[in-house]
């Protein structure tokens, strides 16, 4: 049984894998999508560089693209504070415990200061620092006391899951979780409470300029700290975390990272300002307001179930009909109690509920800043209580619990779910007898939201601290775009598209998702982020349905003008200004590999006028998603770098060239080839170049004897017919036993021995368009940035059909003819 991920996305939110730019300017949260207004596109670390990596080089620590991405993300997301203000934000005043702690650690500090002053290299700083830190915490209460350890040569495995894993990390000093006063064996990030990075000379920040120092060493050091913070956030699920940089032997800075940026103290000498580090550590490990031993920043709405509670809830899961085939190893996992909310089925009011997680986590964004989406499989304690009290009660529902940090300015995702479901119900009520069954099937199969909880505000029956669930203003040089902590209860639970058991089921899942997209558009909602993580298979198939895909995650959706009007009519308690819709539809939104050509052109500033994101752009995204799956998870294209060559380009040119040629895949899977080639031609028609009519003196305009054919936008009806033709009408057989192939990252480096014995290293044409850099053995290989304009000339396309129609056994998958 596969309990893998429900949604990997880095979209642009907030800068999607490109993270959208809501945040700022683009989306990418692993890994999350992209949103831009007028800012240039930029990638953020996250799924875009991990789950969406297409070459092995892109996962390397020294990959120039990854380094640049981290630098760009961090440069405008910080705020420098004086030390007192920073520590006061952790708790006002100086705790009474600090005086005795400082006095007891006085000798250890003096010894550490002497050794640090005489240190000749970074490694010499480790031992003295650890002895001092452990002396500071020696009298902490047993339940909150940590321990500090030398981990400079200890490899922490990637906190990411499966094939998304990045390189390992080795923090210099690791502070344990509260109550862990010793440690032996290997380390994992879930055991770490904080990390301290030692730099012999490098100071990351410039207090006078109030900025990051402009040197590669400073950027690398900041990236190292940020990765440590990212790993702590991912492993712990905390609202924010703290890390420390020690440099110039006795100087230090304390950093606080949350999901919108980081704040950092001014530099201080901890051997003379003796209270700063003890005060920080006391408040970090003994925070006020928690009812249990948690670190400051820990999520106060999550707790660990006791062993009897786990046993009770696991038994309840095993009694659910659809999960009776699951073994103990499937149900087990990191069990948590997580607070959420569900609409009362009678009153519609939100009620706080207690969710029990089981099985592997379904999805976890690997980005540092952004939505930081996590998805868990859960059942509710309230449902288990009801079933135990009444054996005739319905069995507990299994939900997908979505935990995320959207920007406060974003429309609540639940609003889109509400309007779509309400539309579907009305369609069923008003349908004729002949249509009702089909309408009911759509209602039964769409994703639904059963509750939405905003943790940044107070709620009855919940004693959490709302301030923990809001991000701090962190930007001195750019806009502050605060985020809030949200939780949604959704159905159904999904499994990844890349786990398809046949190419027919893959196409069928996309067909289902496209129908859901059509339904949503008719309701008045445009999705705007069709991507791999947002189209899934149902974990529990619907009875009577041959295909079981669905579309979810309406984080970056927007109402159409008609949809906004309809929403305001039906939900007057939460009105939406029409002007907001028009402005939002001009945002550049999506996950980069799947974005439509026109949207990419708009983000590049190539488009001649602002582009409103329409349904035809999402329909094109479905095409790129299908191509992505075929190139990565089938053997129909023999080029191991085919996906990189197409999707790793930053501009639109490569995609534009791709749709102008026959599909570069083996024709042995005839139904799939026919669908892809018809779809390709439709995307080509949608992106035909148009003359610049604003230039009356254009030579082309004056010479043209026949006006060029206008572009023809894709429509739901047209594309759905293509899918129906190959899934339900064609007599051509689909292959059997063609389940998904595991995608293996390949290197762009090709090494050959020359006759003289030296090593020749050539770089295959890669994501940036660079090629054939010939080097001698021992020469460093540095990635370069090739011109995006070369991309169109570098397409590697294999032989394919040139017909204008895609023939089937019963006729053709019809395609719009070229207009003359």
Helix count equals 22
Q: Which outline best applies?
A: globular
Sheet of most strands = 8 strands, mixed
- How many β strands by DSSP? 29
Which band does the percent of strand residues land in? 15-25%
Helix-strand makeup class: alpha+beta
User: What level of helicity do the residues show?
Assistant: 25-40%
* Overall domain count: 3
Distance between the first and last residues' Cα = 54 Å
Low-confidence stretches: 1-32, 35-50, 766-820
Mean pLDDT score: 82
Radius of gyration (Å)? 28 Å
What oligomeric state do the depicted chains represent?
single chain
If you had to describe this structure to a student in words, what would you say it looks like?
The protein has 820 residues and is α+β, with helices and mostly antiparallel strands. It folds into 3 domains: 78-285, no CATH class; 302-592, no CATH class; 596-742 and 799-813, no CATH class. It has 22 helices and 29 strands. The strands form 8 sheets. Strands 2, 3, 4, 5, 8, 9, 10 and 11 form an 8-stranded mixed beta sheet that branches. Strands 12, 13, 14, 15, 16, 17, 18 and 19 form an 8-stranded antiparallel beta sheet that branches. Strands 20-22-23 form a 3-stranded antiparallel beta sheet. Strand 8 (241-247) and strand 9 (251-257) form a beta hairpin. It starts with 33 loop residues before the first strand and ends in a 7-residue tail after the last strand.
């Amino acid at each position: 049984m596969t309990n893998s991920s429900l949604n990997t996305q880095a979209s642009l939110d907030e800068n999607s894998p490109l993270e959208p730019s809501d945040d700022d300017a683009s989306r990418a949260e692993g890994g999350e999508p992209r949103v831009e207004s007028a800012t240039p596109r930029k990638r953020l670390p996250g799924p875009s560089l991990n789950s969406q990596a297409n070459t092995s080089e892109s996962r390397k620590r020294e990959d120039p693209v990854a380094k640049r991405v981290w630098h760009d993300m961090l440069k405008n997301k910080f705020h420098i504070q004086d030390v007192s203000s920073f520590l006061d934000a952790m708790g006002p005043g100086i705790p009474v415990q600090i005086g005795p702690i400082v006095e007891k650690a006085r000798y250890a500090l003096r010894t550490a200061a002497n050794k640090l002053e005489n240190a000749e290299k970074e490694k010499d700083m480790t031992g003295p620092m650890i002895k001092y830190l452990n002396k500071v915490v020696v009298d902490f209460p047993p339940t909150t006391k940590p321990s500090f350890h030398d981990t400079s040569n200890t490899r922490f495995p990637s906190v990411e899951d499966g094939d998304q894993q990045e390189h390992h990390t080795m923090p210099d000093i690791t502070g344990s979780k509260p109550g862990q006063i010793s440690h032996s064996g290997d380390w994992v990030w879930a055991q770490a409470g904080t990390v301290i990075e030692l730099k012999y000379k490098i100071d990351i920040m410039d207090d006078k300029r109030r900025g990051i120092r402009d040197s590669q060493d400073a950027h690398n050091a900041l990236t190292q700290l940020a990765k440590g913070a990212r790993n702590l956030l991912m492993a712990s699920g905390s609202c924010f975390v703290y890390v420390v940089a020690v440099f110039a032997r006795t100087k230090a800075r304390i950093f606080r990272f949350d999901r919108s940026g980081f704040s950092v103290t001014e530099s201080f000498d901890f051997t003379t300002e003796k209270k700063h580090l003890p005060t920080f550590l006391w408040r970090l490990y003994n925070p006020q307001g928690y009812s249990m031993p948690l670190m400051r920043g820990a999520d106060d709405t999550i707790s660990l179930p006791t062993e009897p509670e786990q046993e009770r809830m696991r038994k309840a899961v095993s009694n659910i009909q659809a999960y009776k085939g699951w073994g103990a190893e499937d149900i087990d996992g990191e069990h948590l109690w997580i607070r959420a909310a569900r609409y009362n089925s009678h009153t519609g009011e939100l009620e706080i509920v207690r969710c029990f997680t089981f099985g592997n986590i379904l999805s976890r964004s690997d980005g540092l800043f952004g939505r930081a989406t996590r998805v868990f499989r859960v059942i509710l304690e309230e449902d288990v209580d009801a079933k135990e009290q009444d054996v005739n009660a319905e069995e507990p529902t299994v939900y997908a619990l979505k935990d995320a940090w959207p920007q406060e300015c974003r429309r609540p995702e639940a609003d889109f779910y509400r309007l779509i479901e309400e539309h579907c119900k009305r369609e069923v009520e008003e349908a004729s007898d002949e249509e009702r069954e089909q309408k009911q099937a759509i209602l039964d199969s769409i994703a639904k939201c059963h509750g939405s909880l905003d943790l940044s505000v107070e709620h009855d029956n919940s004693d959490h601290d709302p301030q923990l669930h809001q991000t701090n203003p962190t930007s001195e040089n750019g806009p502050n775009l605060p985020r809030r902590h949200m939780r949604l209860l959704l159905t159904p639970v999904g499994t990844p598209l890349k786990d398809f058991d046949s190419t027919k089921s893959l196409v069928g899942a996309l067909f289902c998702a496209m129908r859901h997209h059509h339904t949503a558009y008719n309701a008045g909602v445009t999705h705007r982020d069709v991507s791999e993580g947002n189209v899934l298979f149902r974990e529990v198939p619907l009875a009577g349905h041959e295909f079981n895909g669905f579309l979810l995650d309406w984080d970056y959706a927007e109402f159409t003008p008609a949809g906004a009007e309809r929403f305001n009519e039906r939900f007057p308690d939460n009105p939406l200004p029409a002007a907001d819709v028009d402005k939002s539809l001009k945002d550049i939104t999506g996950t980069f590999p799947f974005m439509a050509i026109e949207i990419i052109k708009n983000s590049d500033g190539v488009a001649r006028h602002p582009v409103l994101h329409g349904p035809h752009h999402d329909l094109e995204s479905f095409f790129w998603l299908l191509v992505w799956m075929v190139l990565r998870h089938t053997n129909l294209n023999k080029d191991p770098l085919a996906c990189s060559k197409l999707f790793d380009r930053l501009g639109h040119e490569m995609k534009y060239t791709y749709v102008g040629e026959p599909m570069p895949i083996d024709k042995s899977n005839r139904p799939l080839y026919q669908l892809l080639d018809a779809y390709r031609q439709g995307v080509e028609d949608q992106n035909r170049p148009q003359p610049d009519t604003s230039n009356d003196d254009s030579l082309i305009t004056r010479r043209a004897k026949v006006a060029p054919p206008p572009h023809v936008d894709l429509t739901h009806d047209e594309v759905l017919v293509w899918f129906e033709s190959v899934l339900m009408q064609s007599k051509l057989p689909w292959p059997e036993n063609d389940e998904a192939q595991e995608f293996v990252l390949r290197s762009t480096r090709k090494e050959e021995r020359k006759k003289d014995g030296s090593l020749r290293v050539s770089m295959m044409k890669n994501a940036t368009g660079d090629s054939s850099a010939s080097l001698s053995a021992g020469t460093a290989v540095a990635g370069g940035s090739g011109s995006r304009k070369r991309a169109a000339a570098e397409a590697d396309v294999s032989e394919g059909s040139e017909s204008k129609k895609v023939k089937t056994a019963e006729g053709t998958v019809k395609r719009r003819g070229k207009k003359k």
